[in-house]
């Protein structure tokens, strides 16, 4: 699989595996499914794996570390995130966590302080069994941006300067604060979720030009926009940005599908290829549960896209030209 280099020399495969499903996102992922997912990703050439304490209250980190433990450490890249500390919560252990099908013990506590960052990294190393991480992201610091963009990122840069991590940055669902973080701090990578896709070009206004100018890599996540772009045509009840897709947006995706079909490709094929056209983007991270989903993602990523598709989509006013 093709790779793209980051500013400090990490080689990220153009397709990365997002490990939220390994944390039982929405429903149980069995241990067998988790192992098969990582094996399929590895044998398909994927070498970038992204996780977080948030995913299944540490379950994703534990599973990822376990199933990578027999692979050569210098052959893969792992990113995890900081900002949500996991603390014991025996009083809620009988409940199920919101969003992940795991017991609600521990619980999450927002903490972007220096001490919180260092504790979070220490706990993540213990859960994964790794000796180091390649990338550390501030995780969704929207409501804690001042502390995260000062004390939090300073702690990550301190770890980078000590050689404990290679690259640092943040992962968010909004483009503007990621751009502001780039202006404020010496970050290497940002993960932009859902704001640079076939139907949402928010990141093109500011984030992507700034990242390209500063040499900051962009990892694109949520390129299917919660499922709207994951099928050849929008399915009944299609979701967009964690909620029901508006009718006018579904109609727009249907028009995108018309153009894609004329060129012999699907909407999901184009969704992946579109973001990789921008020079600042270093990888697209897609979640998967099981072998078939991994293989589907890889097949879509490897689909050859004719240049005429982009010309037609731009010409019909359906997408912005990321190269303009």
Automatic annotation (TrEMBL):
Organism: Microbacterium deminutum
Cross-referenced SUPFAM superfamilies: NAD(P)-linked oxidoreductase
Domain of life of the source: Bacteria
Signal peptide (UniProt feature, chain positions): none
PANTHER family (alphabetical): GH17980P-RELATED
Pfam families assigned to the protein according to its UniProt record, in alphabetical order: Aldo_ket_red
Protein name as catalogued: Aldo/keto reductase
InterPro entries per the UniProt record, alphabetical: AKR (IPR020471), NAD(P)_OxRdtase_dom_sf (IPR036812), NADP_OxRdtase_dom (IPR023210)
Residues covered by the NADP-dependent oxidoreductase domain: 14-307
């Amino acid at each position: 699989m093709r790779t793209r280099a980051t500013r400090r020399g990490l080689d990220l495969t153009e397709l990365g595996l997002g490990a939220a499903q390994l944390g039982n996102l929405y429903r149980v992922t069995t241990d067998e499914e988790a192992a098969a997912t990582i094996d399929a990703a590895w044998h398909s050439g994927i070498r970038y794996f992204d996780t977080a304490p948030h995913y299944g209250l540490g379950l994703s980190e534990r599973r990822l570390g376990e199933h990578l433990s027999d692979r050569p450490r210098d052959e893969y890249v792992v990113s995890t995130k900081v900002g949500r500390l996991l603390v014991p919560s025996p009083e809620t252990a009988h409940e199920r966590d919101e969003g992940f099908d795991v017991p609600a013990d521990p619980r999450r506590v927002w903490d972007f302080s220096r001490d919180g960052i260092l504790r979070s990294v220490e706990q993540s190393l213990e859960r994964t069994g790794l000796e180091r991480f390649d990338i550390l992201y501030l995780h969704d610091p929207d409501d804690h941006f001042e502390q995260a963009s000062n004390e939090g990122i300073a702690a990550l840069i301190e770890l980078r300067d000590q050689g404990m991590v290679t690259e640092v940055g943040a992962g968010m669902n909004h483009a503007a604060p990621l751009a502001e973080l780039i202006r404020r701090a010496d970050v290497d990578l940002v993960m932009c979720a859902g704001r640079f896709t076939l139907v949402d070009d928010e990141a093109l206004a500011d984030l992507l030009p700034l990242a390209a100018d500063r040499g900051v890599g962009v990892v694109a996540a949520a390129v299917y926009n919660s499922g709207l772009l994951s099928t050849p045509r929008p399915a009944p009840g299609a979701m967009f940005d964690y909620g029901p897709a508006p009718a006018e947006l579904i109609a727009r995706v249907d028009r995108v599908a018309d153009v894609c079909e004329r060129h012999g490709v699907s909407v999901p094929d184009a969704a992946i290829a579109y973001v990789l056209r921008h020079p600042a983007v270093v990888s697209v991270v897609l979640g998967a549960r099981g072998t078939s989903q991994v293989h589907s993602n890889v097949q879509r990523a490897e689909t050859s896209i004719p240049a005429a598709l982009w010309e037609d989509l731009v010409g019909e006013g359906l997408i912005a030209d990321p190269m303009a």
